[in-house]
Design brief:
The complex is a heterodimer of chains A (about 280) and B (about 40). With about 280 residues, chain A is an all-alpha fold. Chain A is about 75% helix and about 0% strand. Chain A has helices at about 5-25, 40-65, 70-95, 100-120, 125-160, 165-185, 195-205, 205-215, 235-280. In chain B, about 95% of the residues lie in helices and about 0% in strands. Chain B is built from one helix and no strands. Classes of the chains: A mainly alpha (about 280), B mainly alpha (about 40). The interface of A and B includes residues 36, 156, 269 and 272 of A.
Chain lengths: ~280, ~40
C-alpha cells in the first residue's frame, strides 16, 4: 500500500496534466462562447465528483445509523437490493424522459447496490463514520470549485455573476448543508456527534437529486443537460470531458485516501490520549 | 480568456489550499504521537 500511493500520485499528476492540455488545446473551440467555454472541463467534472462523494457520504452515514440495529440493517440491505433490481427492470419497462438511456438508469441502480455492499464489506462501523467525514470534506472542496468556477463562467456568458435560479440556489444550499455537517463534527463535543452528523447527512443527501434534476424539471438560467436529457455534445468535447472527470476522480480518490488515513490515525491518538489520562494518577 | 485562466487558477488554489491544511493536520498529529511516545 505504501508503494502504491506514490505510484498512483505520479499517474494522477500525469493524467491531470494531460487533462489540462486536452481541455486547453485538444477540445474544439465552442462556436458561440469561445475559449471561456473551456471552464466546462473543470466545472462539470468537479460537480460530478462532488455528487459522487456526497453519495458515498450518504451510504456511509446510512450504514453508520442502521448497522447497530439488526432489523434496520436487514431492511436497508433489502432496500439497496430493491434499488438495483427495480431500476434494472423499471428502466426497460417504464417510460423514461426523452434522451435518458434505459441502460444508464439500470447501470446507475446496480452501481448504487454495488457501492452499498462494497462499503458494508470493506468498512467496519467505526470506519464507515471515518469514510463519511472524509467524503463530506473532500466533497465540500469539489463543491466549492463548482461554486467558484460557475460565476467565473457566467459573468462573460450571461453578463451576471450569479442568479437565484433553482440549479444555482440548490447547489449553494447543498454546499451550506455539508459545511454545517463539517462544523457539527468539528465543534460538537457531545458523545452523539457521529449519530447526529449521520442523520444530517442523510437529509443533506436529499438535496443532491434536486440539484441534479433541477435543470430537467424547472426552466432555469443554467443550461439544460448536454449529456442525456435530449442534449447533444461534440464527441471530441465529450472525450475531453470524460478524461478530465477521470483525472479528477483519481485525484479525489488520492485525497480521500490521505484524509481517511489521517482520520483513522487521529482516532487512535485520541483513544490513546483518553486511556493515558485515565491511567494517570490523580494529583488531588 | 482571462476568465478561463481565473477559473483554472481558482480551481487549483482551492485544491492546493486544502492539501496544505491536510499536511498541517498531519504534522500536528505527528507531534501529538511523538508526545505520546515520551
Amino acid at each position: 500500500m505504501k508503494r502504491l500511493f506514490p505510484l498512483l500520485g505520479v499517474l494522477t499528476a500525469a493524467l491531470l496534466t494531460y487533462a489540462l492540455y486536452a481541455a486547453l488545446e485538444i477540445a474544439p473551440r465552442e462556436a458561440t462562447m469561445g475559449d471561456v467555454q473551456r471552464i466546462f472541463y473543470y466545472h462539470v467534472p468537479s460537480a460530478w465528483t462532488a455528487f459522487l462523494l456526497f453519495f458515498l457520504n450518504f451510504v456511509a452515514s446510512v450504514q453508520y445509523l442502521v448497522r447497530p440495529h439488526p432489523l434496520a440493517d436487514r431492511l436497508a440491505k433489502w432496500v439497496a437490493i430493491a434499488i438495483g433490481v427495480g431500476s434494472s427492470i423499471g428502466a426497460f419497462v417504464m417510460p423514461l424522459p426523452a434522451g435518458v438511456e434505459p441502460g444508464s438508469v439500470a447501470t446507475t441502480g446496480l452501481a448504487i447496490t454495488g457501492i452499498y455492499f462494497l462499503i458494508r464489506k470493506c468498512f467496519s462501523l467505526e470506519a464507515t463514520d471515518a469514510l463519511a467525514v472524509t467524503t463530506a470534506e473532500v466533497g465540500v472542496v469539489f463543491c466549492t470549485v463548482v461554486l467558484v468556477t460557475g460565476p467565473l463562467w457566467a459573468r462573460p456568458v450571461w453578463g451576471i455573476w450569479w442568479t437565484w435560479d433553482v440549479r444555482l440556489t440548490s447547489t449553494l444550499v447543498l454546499w451550506l448543508i455539508y459545511v454545517s455537517y463539517l462544523m457539527l463534527r468539528r465543534f460538537s463535543s457531545s458523545g452523539q456527534t457521529a449519530i447526529l452528523a449521520a442523520a444530517l447527512a442523510v437529509f443533506g443527501a436529499l438535496d443532491v437529486p434536486l440539484v441534479y434534476f433541477s435543470i430537467w424539471i424547472f426552466r432555469t438560467q443554467h443550461p439544460q443537460p448536454v449529456i442525456g436529457g435530449g442534449g447533444s455534445i461534440d464527441p471530441r468535447m465529450l472525450r475531453v470531458l470524460l478524461i478530465n472527470w477521470l483525472a479528477f476522480l483519481c485525484f479525489a480518490f488520492l485525497v480521500c485516501w490521505s484524509r481517511y488515513r489521517l482520520e483513522m490515525v487521529k482516532r487512535e491518538v485520541d483513544e490513546k490520549q483518553a486511556m493515558e489520562s485515565l491511567a494517570e494518577p490523580r494529583g488531588v | 480568456m482571462n476568465f478561463l485562466y481565473a477559473a483554472l487558477a481558482a480551481t487549483w488554489a482551492i485544491h492546493v489550499g486544502y492539501l496544505i491544511t491536510l499536511v498541517r493536520r498531519y504534522s500536528r498529529l505527528k507531534a501529538e504521537i511523538e508526545e505520546l511516545k515520551k
